[in-house]
Every structure is written in C-alpha cells, then in structure tokens.
Specification:
Potassium transporter. The chain contains 25 helices and twelve strands. It is α/β, with parallel strands linked by helices. The strands form four sheets. A six-stranded mixed sheet has the order 9-10-8-7-11-12, with helices on both faces. The chain has a two-stranded antiparallel sheet with strand order 1-2.
C-alpha cells in the first residue's frame, strides 16, 4: 500500500494534508518510530530566525528572560564566601577563579558547546536525555517498548544507530545503565526546579537587603516580608506569557547590564587599576597554595558567579541559539567580567567589607538609582529560572515522567512559551517559604551552590555521552572536554557538599520529593502498561466478542482511547461484556508523544483500517514541544477527513470494483458521525492484593494518589463533557 500520498490541497495550521499509513507487520525485533527528525522541522526555530534584525531583537528579549540569574549574581557571590581576614593576594586569586569559571563554563561549555546539543530547538538536561533516546536506543519509555507488531505506524531503527559506538551498544544491552542514565536526567531536572525556587528567593532578598544600609532601623523581617510580596506579584504575572514579560523586563536588564560594568570600571580606576592582571591563572595556584582547605571551602561561594548558566541552555526553546549567543558574548560576559573586577578592586582596598554585600562598592551619589535597578534586575533573574522550570516540567509531562498538569501556551507563534498554573503557584509558595523560613542569605546561598554545581556536572556528563554516541567527536577532544569540566565542576561539588548542614539540604529535600513523585508516576505507568500488554485484545478476540449472541452494533461514531498500539486495550473486552454493544464505527485512538520536539503536521494523524467492518486504528502523534490545540469537533473532523482520504487513496491501488465499496464505507462513516459522537476512555485503578510486596504496595499506592489528582488527557483535546464516557476497571497488581 502506498504511503505519503497527497490528499487534496494543503490545509493550514494543524490540519492534515497527507496520509501516513502502513499495514506492514514488524519482524518481531524491537522497533521504534522512523520519523525522520530532519523532516520534523522545529517551526519556532524557523520563525524566530528570519533576518538579522529579528535575531537582534530576539537577542534583546533574551536579556529579560534567559540571563537574569547570571547577570545578577554579583548581588550575593562575595557575601556567600566564608573568608577570614582576606588579603590582596586572596582577592586576586578569587577573581582569577571567577574569571576562568565564567570563561570556561559560560563561554566554552554553554555558549560554545551545549547550545549546539539542542533537541531540535529545545534545551536543558531532559532535552539532552530525549536527544540520546531519539538518536540511540538508550531510553526505557514504555511508548518505545510497546510498539512491536504495530500496524499503525512505520518502523525502523532510531536515527544514528546504523554504526553504533561501543558505548552506545553498552547502553542498549544494559538495562541498569539505561536506568542510571534516566536517574541522572531526572536528578538534573529536579535540581533545575530547585534552582527555580532558590534563584527568586536569593536574588530578590539580596537586592531588597540594600534598603538596610541607609536605614539601619529597617528590620530583617521587614526586608523578608517585602521580598515575599515582590515574588508573589511576579508569579501572578506569569499567566501573561514570556513574550510580554520579557518585553517588559528587557529594558530593566539592559539598564542593569550596562550600569554595573560602568560602576565596575569606576571602582577599578579609583581603587585598583591593575586588577585585570588577575586573569593570569597563576593567581589561582597561589590562592590554593596559601589557603589550602579554607580556599577549597570558599569555592562554595565562588561557584555562584556562574549561577543561571543552566537557564541559558534550558530556555533555548523560548528563543534560539544565535540570539542567546549574541546576547551572552556581547553583553553578559563582558558585563560580569568588569563588574566582578570592580567589586574585587574595591574589596582589595576594603578587605573586611565582603560580608556587607553588593551595595558597598556603589558610590553614594547613585546609590538609590542602583538600588531600584538592582531590585528590578533581581525580579528578572527570578523570571529566567521560572521560565526554564515551566519548560522542563512540560517536557517531562509529555514524556510521561511527571503527573499531568495544565500547560498553557502563552504565545500563538512560539510553542516553546508555556505556563503551568499549578506549577506556578507551587513555586510561589515554596519561594516565599524559603525566604520566610531561611531568611539568612548565607543559608540560601549554600543551598544555591549545591544546585548550581550539580546541574552543571550532570550537563557535562550528558554532553559527553552526546559527543561520543551522536556527534562521534574524536576521542582526544572528548577526553579533553570531560577532564577539564568534570574535574573543575567536581571540585566545586565537593566544596558545596560541606555546606549541606548549613542550608545545603534544602535542594536535596526538594529534589528527593520531586524524584519520588517522578519515579512513582513512571513506575505506575510502566506497571499499567505491562498489564495492558499482557491482557491485550487482538483482532481475532475482538471478532469473537462481537459475534457472541446479544452483542449489538449501535449507531454512532466512537473514539475509544487506548494506551497501546500492539493490540487493543483490555478495557474494550470489559466494556463489550458489560454493555453488550459497540458503536457501528469505532476508532481506536492512541495519543502518542514522540521523543522529538515537534511532529510535522502531515504526520500528526496516522490512520489504519483494522480488517473488521467499521473498526479503525488512529494514532495522534505529538512531540514534547507541540500543543494539543484541537477542539473536540475539530478533532473529529480531522480524523474522519484523514480516514476517508486514506480509504479513497487505498481504493485507487486495489482491485477493480472497490470504488463502490469505498463509497459505501465512506457513507457508513458519515452516517455514524451524524448519529452522534462519543469519546470513551478507561479509568483504571490497581487492585493491590495481600500478595503484593511492600515495594509495590508503597509505589502503586502512591501512584494511585497521583493519578487520582492529576488532569485527564481528554480535556487537553477539547472534548465536550457530554461526549465523554469513562469506563472503570481494576487491574490486578
């Protein structure tokens, strides 16, 4: 049967213009989707890169979203360092460490390498994991394991696996290695969410603390309360979308990015003109030689100079690579180098002022304007990690690693711009709680250091795997990259781990809770899929059920939703046996997320005739950056149009006389559609018997709590409430 046959004129937006169908059977091996990623063009990348002016405007907008955490780090870096009677040589060594950290991690690793490892426009640790899963057979997603013998979709090996490296073969053959890789990706995502909680807290609190210098009578509690109010307002603005927020915030961050290096230059000239000599790495060696353990412990505060660098990568889906690189290399990096140079120059002349924060090196004549700009810039810093958190939550939800939450697309043109009300308010509560409970900036800084260093280390590990298994980078270059960054970030991690009792436990507590939620959800979904594959109904069994006495085919069109494609859901047998009927036209529908950001519109809906009268299969395919923007009636129209076009295309390659049969079948479908449409989905629960072990009792019980409180998949398709039917069934654990 032909594939990819054109059917009529192309339709706009999500409408289908081509049919993709295949009735060929698999040969029994593990197979996966063969959707050419080069054909699945990421539309937001194309739309965002038209012309130099468009790129420059986009680069300007990145200031309001991507770089907030990074460029406001001078507010809290020095106060977070446990320095005891620092000398001129100590400060020169610290500045040299910060300079090379910004240069190597910021410029080389993130701007130069990580941004090129996007998953078709999407960035972040989870996007790196999905890139590895898509190009190599290293994932353990149930959707990738439940496809053999599917008649609905095309099959083949994942792209890039024709000539595999030894490491790629090792991951394919070892389920333990694949689980470890999944755990690393999950940990990276959890840590990034922790970053989204701590960045707003420490940024706003550090900025607002500046009001206490001119007004010593202002209490610390009042500063904490004001910081909490500012954050609440910020989170309430999130529903208006990244574009509107970034357009409002970009002028603020532009002002901050310009003024802080100017103040830094003034401080250099006034206090220590030769500060830039510290770019020589030998000052780092001298620093550790003199200070030993104390110098190593100070790295827990020094690492905060690269705060927000992961957002540079994770926010890639909101913008594009070129715009982020231009903004970082031309504005952010020079600004940070000069700002830290100015701060260090001031501290060399006033060595005991490092605990008093950023405002000490600000000239009195511009103190209040800088306070206002710093406070606003801290709000922008919060925005960068909030946006990144929304992105990674959506990625994990659509890949079925996180309970379903509401995801709103706030831009009609950029699918990467998302907002989740539930996640937004949870973040708001946690941020305010961190400020009110752990109001000491040092405790929050200690927690922050743990997050920053671990996320960087995880990104380094995943990037190394991408280099070896996908890019096929020469082993010498891979070894150079891994040794430099793994050792550098490993030293940072070892230093911040000593801060766990002093506030560093906060991100671990958050990450453990998030990881337990993710693993509990994933485990429950896996067990449910295993049950459905074991008790699936094949076409012969369905034919036998329908031929039983008393079973009727009632008028109407039914969309019967199923999670598996290799057979039919066991809920179908439960439904037929108890209802004693099935609609005359039944379309078994699977909502399927692929490990790609976007699915081409002409491959969005895949249909197949299953061999029984009025019985069809349909797969609605989405990438994790796609929007489920169908309305209920629109979905029905699109699926029936594709089905009818498929039948007509199929008939043109069949035996003579078939057009009359196809005409009757099309009329049969149209008649059923007019009789009424219904959408049926299973509402399943685990029956946890006494024979279950304690592990299953805990995790499956926890999964049931999550499943009971998460959102249904059907409302995302806009199915009208009167057309929904839920069929309950117990799965024995």
């Amino acid at each position: 049967m032909p594939t990819n046959q054109p059917v009529g004129p192309r339709e706009p937006a999500a409408a289908l213009s081509e049919i993709v169908a295949d009735t060929a059977r698999s040969n029994g091996r593990h197979h996966h989707h063969l959707l050419d990623p080069r054909g699945l063009t990421s539309h937001h990348r194309l739309d965002k890169g038209k012309g130099r002016w468009a790129t420059l405007i986009l680069a300007y907008k990145t200031l309001g979203v991507v770089f907030g955490g990074l460029v406001t780090s001078p507010l809290y870096v020095y106060p977070s360092m446990p320095l005891k009677s620092p000398t001129e040589e100590d400060y020169l060594g610290i500045y040299s460490i910060m300079f090379w950290t910004l240069t190597l991690i910021g410029v080389v690793k993130y701007a130069g390498i990580a941004l090129k490892a996007d998953d078709q426009g999407e960035g972040g640790t989870f996007a790196l994991y999905s890139l590895l899963c898509r190009k190599m057979d290293v994932g353990i997603l149930h959707s990738k394991r439940a496809e053999s013998n599917s008649g609905f979709v095309r099959h083949g090996r994942p792209e890039g696996t024709e000539k595999q490296s030894r490491l790629g073969k090792f991951f394919e053959q070892s389920i333990v290695a694949r689980r470890v890789l999944l755990f690393i990706a999950m940990l990276g995502m959890c840590m990034l969410i922790g970053d989204g909680i701590l960045t707003p807290a420490i940024s706003v609190l550090s900025a607002m603390d500046g009001v206490r210098a001119p007004f010593p009578s202002v209490s610390k509690s009042l500063v904490e309360a004001l910081s909490a109010i500012v954050l609440i307002v910020l989170f309430l603005l999130q529903k208006f979308g990244t574009s509107k927020v970034s357009f409002l915030f970009s002028p603020i961050m532009g002002a901050w990015t310009l003024t802080t290096p100017l103040v830094g230059i003034y401080s250099i000239i006034k206090h220590y003109p030769s500060i830039l000599k510290a770019v020589s790495p030998h000052y780092i060696v001298h620093f550790f030689w003199r200070n030993g353990t104390e110098g190593w412990l100070s790295l827990g505060g020094t690492v905060l100079c690269i705060t927000g660098s992961e957002a540079l990568f994770a926010d890639l889906g909101h913008f594009n690579r070129t715009s982020i690189q231009i903004a970082f290399l031309c504005t952010i990096y020079p600004s940070l180098v000069l700002t830290y140079a100015g701060q260090t120059a001031y501290l060399i002349r006033h060595p005991n002022d490092h605990e008093d924060g950023f405002y000490k090196f600000i000239p009195e004549s511009i103190y209040w304007p800088m306070f206002v700009v710093a406070t606003l810039a801290a709000i922008v810093a919060s925005q960068s990690l909030i946006s990144a958190t929304f992105s990674v939550i959506k990625q994990s939800v659509v890949l079925d690693y996180f309970p379903r939450v509401k995801v709103v697309h706030t831009s009609p043109n950029k699918e990467g711009e998302v907002y989740s009300p539930e996640i937004n308010y949870i973040l708001m509560i946690l941020c305010v709680a961190v400020i009110l409970i752990f109001g000491d900036g040092k405790d929050i800084g200690n927690a922050f250091g743990v997050v920053v260093s671990l996320v960087m280390l995880i990104t380094t590990i995943l990037l190394t795997l991408v280099m070896i298994m996908i890019w096929r980078t020469p082993i010498a270059l891979v070894a150079l990259y891994f040794c430099v960054f793994f050792v550098m970030e490993g030293v940072y991690v070892s230093a911040v781990f000593t801060k766990i009792p002093e506030g560093g436990w906060i991100p671990f507590a958050i990450s453990i809770i998030l990881a337990f939620i993710m693993f509990g959800w994933f485990y429950g979904r896996q067990r449910k899929m295993e049950y459905e594959l074991t008790h699936k109904i094949n076409l012969d069994r369905l034919e036998a059920l329908l031929s039983e006495p008393g079973i009727h085919r009632v008028p109407g069109l039914c969309f019967f939703y199923t999670n598996i494609q290799d057979g039919l859901t066991p809920i179908l047998g439960h439904y037929i046996k108890n209802m004693r009927s099935l609609h005359k036209v039944t379309v078994f529908t699977t909502l399927r997320y692929l490990l790609v950001p976007k699915v081409a519109p002409h491959e969005r809906i895949v249909v197949n005739k299953l061999g029984l009268k009025g019985i069809y299969g349909c797969v609605i395919q989405y990438g994790y950056a796609d929007s489920l923007n169908h309305e209920g009636d629109d979905l029905v129209t699109q699926v029936t149009n594709v089905l009818i076009a498929h039948l007509r295309t199929w008939s043109s390659f069949s035996l003579p006389g078939s057009p009359e049969e196809v005409y009757q079948e099309v009329a049969y479908i149209e008649e059923a559609k007019l009789a009424g449409v219904v959408h049926i989905r299973g509402k399943t629960r685990f029956y946890i018997s006494d024979s279950c072990g304690w592990f299953d009792r805990i995790l499956l019980g926890f999964y049931e709590v999550l499943h009971k409180n998460c959102r249904s998949a059907l409302p995302a398709l806009g199915v009208p409430l009167p057309q929904r039917i839920e069929v309950g069934m117990l799965y024995e654990a």
